[in-house]
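User: Here's a structure from my thesis project, written as structure tokens. My advisor, Dr. K., wants to see whether a designed sequence matches the one we expressed. Can you design one independently, without my sequence as a hint?
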């Protein structure tokens, strides 16, 4: 999996990069089947505003490109680590939902085929 991390209005430190890799890349690699295309994960972390000191002022956004399909998640948090944790939950939810759609379509097609074969007999 290719990983691209962009930081806007904040610095990207090595511990933060390792945290992103541990929280996002490793769980996604377990869920995603390696097909013909290499998955591409684009992550952007941002300090939304500089003059507000309260509330959810950090934003994390992820775009996961799987062939022709793009899965997207965006979260806000009070600090960068909270925003990344929330992003992990949202992105894994999107990947599981995407995989379930494919499995459901396959099962539905098999069910239709089975019914046709039953009617022919």
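Assistant: Designed independently from the structure alone:
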């Amino acid at each position: 999996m290719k990983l691209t991390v962009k930081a806007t209005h904040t610095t990207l430190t090595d511990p933060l990069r390792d945290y992103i890799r541990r929280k996002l890349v490793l769980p996604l690699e377990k869920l995603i089947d390696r097909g013909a295309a290499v998955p591409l994960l684009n992550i952007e972390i941002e300090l939304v505003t500089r003059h507000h000191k309260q509330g959810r002022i950090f934003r994390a956004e992820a775009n996961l490109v799987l062939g022709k399909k793009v899965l997207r998640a965006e979260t806000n948090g009070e600090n960068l680590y909270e925003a990344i944790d929330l992003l992990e939950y949202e992105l894994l939810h999107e990947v599981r939902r995407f995989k379930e759609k494919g499995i459901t379509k396959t099962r539905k097609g098999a069910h239709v085929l089975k019914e046709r074969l039953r009617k022919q007999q």
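When you compare it with your expressed construct, this may help: The beta strands are 2-8, 40-47, 58-66, 69-77.
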